[in-house]
Amino acid sequence: MKYIVILGDGMADKNIPELGNKTILDVAKKPHIDGLKGVLGMARTVPNELKPGSDVANLAVMGYDPLKCYTGRSPLEAVSIGINMKETDVAIRCNLVTLLDEEDPKKRTMLDYSAGEISTEEARELIEAVERELGDDEFKFYPGISYRHCLIWDNGKTGLDLTPPHDISDRVIGEYLPKNDKILSLMERSYSILKDHPVNLKRKSEGKNPANSIWLWGEGTKPNVENFEKKNGLKGAVISAVDLIKGIGISAGMESIDVEGATGTVDTNYEGKLAAAKKTLLEDGNDFLYIHLEGPDECGHHGYTEGKILAVERIDERVVGPLCEALREANEDFAMLIMPDHPTPIETKTHSSDPVPFKIYRSNNEADVAITYTEKNAKESGIFIEEGYTLLEKFINNKL
Ligand SMILES: O=C(O)[C@@H](CO)OP(=O)(O)O
């Protein structure tokens, strides 16, 4: 038996006026997901005590109680980047962002939390420049993927109340700037290093958003995630473009499979992810796979309705459909859990803590009818998992 989680990051949404008050899941054409004869339900993946980050929500979907094991987002990403954190280190997410030029730093606006989804190669040059100027015995910058990087603070502080930049798109940053002087100073000094860097001058000349500042958030200490195989008795793997999911997987002792051309956008390498999924399940002996697709979330943050619909449709057509077909052809019994981690509504361009819809399909125990996978149908099922981290155990142990 193979167990697969298809995680469409942020794909749940609210009713959208321009879609005739329907949601993305209502209008996206997803015949493969909808055609699966399975069970629908709702799950609360973000406990009331925590903020609706992908860190908290994905830990919960992977079966970990975030209230017990969550130590911050960046430390999980640091694991994927290959940073060996000391107990006294604090990891902080370092975005490359685009701020609107203003003399007074407080008056700048957060134009793009992703600096035009800058390429990893360009970003590496910029982070290396930042490290040369701002790195010292206390602070060290490590390049990651695209706009997502990491700062390690020796003997650093946590509880800094830093703001994720994707929560303040198009807003003046003044009131969201860090209260901690050291962190604030790093951010402000990065602007003068990056503003006229050749990489950015070239980007501007090509009409792209320059990565003219760093933005620090998501701090935390070394993570402590229970081994997945020990906990669930299944050897598992994760496939994702982003360091957060890779880092959770690696921290849990799972294999993290790198796929060339996996970008975390709607234009990711779906075929590459599919091929890796088939190989890991059918050839490499893994029984559990967490395949994460970031496209719907990115489109949600950018308020890009058509892109978000397309992202869901591509997951359906290029991952769910062919993966089910390959498992059937191989005569492999499988169970599939399809869900987002959290909603990323187009209207607010950021995450919400609302419960999310899920669908569970079992090839050896099909339901009588195939119910369309939408928020409304999932709510009407009457199945509600209040402690979302318990869903995975129910999925694996055939309790739903
Ligand atoms: O990685 C990030 O910076 C954010 C925004 O894309 O991701 P998520 O929305 O999944 O938390």
Automatic annotation (TrEMBL):
Domain Metalloenzyme: from-to ranges: 1-385
Pfam families, A to Z: Metalloenzyme, PhosphMutase
GO biological process, one term: glycolytic process
Pathway as given in its UniProt record: Carbohydrate degradation
Catalytically driven reaction(s): (2R)-2-phosphoglycerate = (2R)-3-phosphoglycerate
Keywords assigned by UniProt, alphabetized: Glycolysis, Isomerase
GO molecular-function terms, A-Z: metal ion binding; phosphoglycerate mutase activity
SUPFAM superfamilies: Alkaline phosphatase-like
Top-level enzyme category: isomerase
Enzyme Commission no: 5.4.2.12
Recorded superkingdom: Bacteria
Purpose of the protein: Catalyzes the interconversion of 2-phosphoglycerate and 3-phosphoglycerate.
Family: Belongs to the BPG-independent phosphoglycerate mutase family. A-PGAM subfamily.
Entry protein name: Cofactor-independent phosphoglycerate mutase
